[in-house]
Amino acid sequence: MSRPADSEDPHAGQPIQTAGASPAEADAAVVLVHGRGARADGMLQFAQEFHHDGVHYVAPQAQRGTWYPNRFVAPIERNQPHLDSALSHLERAVEEARSGGLPAEKVILVGFSQGACLVSEFVARTPRRYGGLVLLSGGLIGQEGTDFDYEGDVDGMPFFLGVSDDDPHIPMSRAEETVEVFERLGADVRFDRYEGRGHGIFEEEIEYLDELVAGLVE
Question: Which residues contact 163 (CB under 8 A, 6 or more apart)?
């Protein structure tokens, strides 16, 4: 059940859905963050594409299906207070993923579109080594010309970003900037640039996720 929205913290009362192994029995966890206008249960359904036993799947829900109102390349202040609220809700989802005692190195963060932007910002702001960070058509949040001067070390964390050259929502230049930031933070980066595929989730990305998850539970 969700609670009534707080105008200063709109995502505070939103649910976090789970599937798979219980936190106490899980060998790994995957946090899945949906895109604009979507739902947490849709991300749990997507997780069936790379399901493995022993994994606790966690999916936070945004208020009215939207993490922040404007484009991710708008000035940060135009997406407040929703953005800060979304980051706090994502932190709660990570806490749920680790509630059985898993270290961060056993937790993979996955986001699609607006959700990918959110998870990239979450890790960049407080860098640490997670089991992986997977951006399915997304990038760091901020207007053109933003100086992404994040500092820290993700200590070889697997990092994936996939985007098409004709994606109407994610400029390739922002994807490239995001990759540069995570390279500087010490991630093990894979950057897939697709041609003429638009905005979506692609087979190569599902294969990467399947291998990444398998590596944490084997």
Answer: 137, 138, 139, 170, 172, 175, 192, 193, 194
Percent share of the chain, pLDDT over 70: 97
DSSP state of 104: G
Cα 40 → chain centroid: 12
Angle at 61 between CA 56 and CA 66, to 5 degrees: 140
| Spatial contact of 185 and 197, defined as CB atoms under 8 Å apart | no
Q: Residue 58 is encoded by which pair of tokens?
A: 């966690």
SS3 85: helix
Select from 97, 68, 73 the least CA-distant residue to 84: 68
Cis geometry, peptide bond prior to residue 81 (ω within 30 degrees of 0): yes
Q: Does the reported pTM lie above 0.90?
A: yes
> What's the pLDDT tens digit per position in 178-196?
999 999 999 999 999 999 9
Give backbone dihedrals phi and psi of 158, rounded to 5 degrees, phi first: -60, 130
Q: Which pair of tokens denotes residue 32?
A: 């899945």
Query: Is 140 within 8 Å of 148 (Cβ atoms)?
Result: yes
